[in-house]
Specification:
The protein is α+β, with helices and mostly antiparallel strands and 216 residues long. It has 3 domains: 43 residues; 54 residues; 57 residues, Nucleotide Exchange Factor Grpe, Chain A, domain 2, CATH 2.30.22. It is 57% helix and 13% strand. Strand 4 and strand 5 form a beta hairpin.
Length: 216
Amino acid sequence: MTKPPSTPNPELKPDLDGLPTNAELDALQSEIDAATHAANAAEGETADKAPELSPAEIAAKRIEELETELAGMKDQALRAMAETENIKKRSEREVKAASVYAVERFAADVLSISDNLGRALSTITDEARGDLGKNATDLLAGIELTEKDLMAVFARHGIKSVPGKGSKFDPNVHQAVAQIPSAEAKGDVAEIMQTGFTLGERTLRAAMVAVSTGPA
């Protein structure tokens, strides 16, 4: 590609062939070198004028940086410790819950046995007991002992019966199936149709009750 003709510097006098002489080139280079030297000198002078930190100031700045870094590390450590403690507490609760509620399904199935024993005993009146023979009396005593032992086993595993007649109606552990007038205060449990049970803090089975509407 042909280069476009350059505009000649008026301060350079072209030689007979139209180009600057060596002396003219040397003069121009000297001028460029002088300008570069002057620029470098000005830059160095500006840098020299910049304030320099004393050793004490440098040390103080470094201490500040280290303190900031240390504070950040302490914060991270505290967060990690708090998270570890939360995980520990959560694990302890889960282990405890697993221990307490491990028998929940089994206990729910066994409740029917308790119901049958209770119904069998409730059919025997005091008058009927007096008319029973020795064998029947021994059988009845065995049924009562079985029910007592079953309640003791329930208690050892944290299974408790729901408060019954005369207690305040609690929708968390009671299921109202009727409202009847009774000697109990209005809103209290008047009769128990089926005993309820709790396991730990859970309702294993709500008690079926009749709620009192007050004296007739």
